[in-house]
Amino acid sequence: MRPQHPPRHLPRGQIPYAPIPRGRRRRPRLSRLRPWCCPRCFSRWARPSLLPEGRPALDQLAAELKARPGVRIRVSGYTDRVGEHDKNQVLSEQRATAVKDYLVKAGVEADRISTIGYGDSRPLFTSPNARNRRVEVEEVK
């Protein structure tokens, strides 16, 4: 492997980076929890129950949350535009609650998780589309 040389446009003797002096080192910060979306958790029409295909993703999320006990999250439920608006609103809240219940059973504290349902008011795809039946998880400060 060839040694790395500084770029030619730098003045002679200058290096492309400067190391942080020992007394001023910063502790590494934990990265924020990236927004997370699970469209495969709920693909059945008008049902708030979790599908087996979505459980590995939820298990991974639960493991990450247990490793970072200071993180609080919001679980947002969504539906497609098939059906009545009021029923879709209730269904989206039930889906968000189903994800919260699963995470609590996996060992995440319930007071770290808040839920909200948006119904069919925020579609990602033109309706009717099953990919709008989803749950999103994001970190809250």
From TrEMBL:
Limits of the OmpA-like domain: 30-141
One protein family per Pfam: OmpA
CDD domains: OmpA_C-like
Basic residues bias: start-end ranges: 1-11
Record-annotated membrane-spanning stretches: none
Signal peptide start-end: none
Xref: InterPro entries: Bact_OuterMem_StrucFunc, OMP_bac, OmpA-like, OmpA-like_sf
Region (Disordered): 1-24
Recorded superkingdom: Bacteria
Cellular compartment(s): Cell outer membrane
UniProt KW Cytoplasm keyword: no
Coiled-coil residues: none
UniProt keyword terms in alphabetical order: Cell outer membrane, Membrane
Protein name: OmpA family protein
Organism: Hymenobacter humi
